[in-house]
Amino acid sequence: MKTGIIGAGAWGTALAIAAERGQNKVILWSYDGEYKHFDGVKMPKNIHITSDIHELKDADAWLIVTPAAFFRETLRKARSIYNGQPIIICTKGAESSTGQFMSEILNTEIPECVEFGVLSGPQFAAEVAHGVPTGSTLAGTNGAIVAGTEILNNLFIETSRDIIGTEMCGVGKNAVALICGYNSVAAAGENERAMIFTRAWNEVVKLGVEMGGQEHSFLGLCGIGDLFLSATSATSRNFSGGMAIAQGKAPEGTVEGIFALKGLIERASSLNIDVPVLTQMKNKMKL
After folding, report:
1. pLDDT 10s digit of each residue in the chain, 287 long?
2. Coil, strand or helix: which one is 156?
């Protein structure tokens, strides 16, 4: 399958490598034609890397992997060449200015896209690039699920129709991982860390169900699986970002958990749902 991957950061590059391993023809786009280099992994020569987004027009499917902060802008750039192909959103997060999820932005910016889905789960990019066994949830329409499972045939994929619940898991785990990283430094002890972790995740689940998500999604790879990976390891940018905030340092790189936490609180407020732990932690971190 001819696969267009939009975004060549760590995750986009890792997905390009995984898709190429699955015998797909891959076009990897980034705004400057650069991509992430992984130690010990050679970039396959038959992955075509480009800064010309028009080269994606004839792809059979798109995987969009740009940071949440640039997701809307990238869709606007891509809309003029959109040709009806399934779109799989591989970005976890919420837009900081609106609190909207990526699927909501897609529906606004490319409303003619009827086959779309969301890929989410416990996925450290470097491990995927190295071929470490990895599982993910792919939630979406029939066309998106068929395309996604063919492209990423060397990953373990659990399928779902629960797009909103799957997105909430990705957004929520970013926020909770940030909180866990902060509390690994700032909490009085392990008991407090466990208490805040549990209550914060419960608020995420409560909000997700209220928005129409299915509770079982929060127990799958996109839920507890991704939460375990991100909220327990300093390898996670959100966890390490929370640690940095607690130490009075500026987080390195893009920390999606900061935007996710703010977006969740705004969404909860709009639905008149009380999220006291998320709000308390936002205030403690002075975000």
Report:
1. 999 999 999 999 999 999 999 999 999 999 999 999 999 999 999 999 999 999 999 999 999 999 988 999 999 999 999 999 999 999 998 887 888 999 999 999 999 999 999 999 999 999 999 999 999 999 999 999 999 999 999 999 999 999 999 999 999 999 999 999 999 999 999 999 999 999 999 999 999 999 999 999 999 999 999 999 999 999 999 999 999 999 999 998 889 999 999 989 999 999 999 999 999 999 999 99
2. strand
Positions marked catalytic: 173
Helices (H), the chain: 10-21, 68-78, 102-109, 125-129, 142-151, 163-186, 190-210, 226-231, 237-246, 256-270, 276-285
What CA–CA distance (Å, rounded) separates 130 from 78?
30
- Judge contact between 35 and 49, C-beta under 8 A: yes
Q: What is the pLDDT of residues 234-270, one digit of tens each?
A: 999 999 999 999 999 999 888 999 999 998 999 999 9
Look at residues 247, 232, 103 and name the one whose alpha carbon lies nearest to residue 170.
103
The residue behind tokens 């396959």 is 44
d(Cα 274, Cα 251) in Å, to the nearest integer?
28
Q: Which of 120, 236, 131, 128 is nearest to 181 (CA)?
A: 236
Question: Quick one: fold of 2-161?
Answer: Rossmann fold (3.40.50)
Which residue type does 131 have? G
DSSP 18-35: HHHHTT-EEEEE-TTS--
User: Angle, nearest 10°, between helix axes 102-109 and 163-186?
Assistant: 140
- What is the DSSP code (8-state) at residue 223? I
Q: For the chain, give every domain's residue range.
A: 2-161, 172-285
Give the CATH number of domain 172-285; options: 3.90.930.60, 2.60.40.420, 1.10.1040.10, 2.40.50.140.
1.10.1040.10
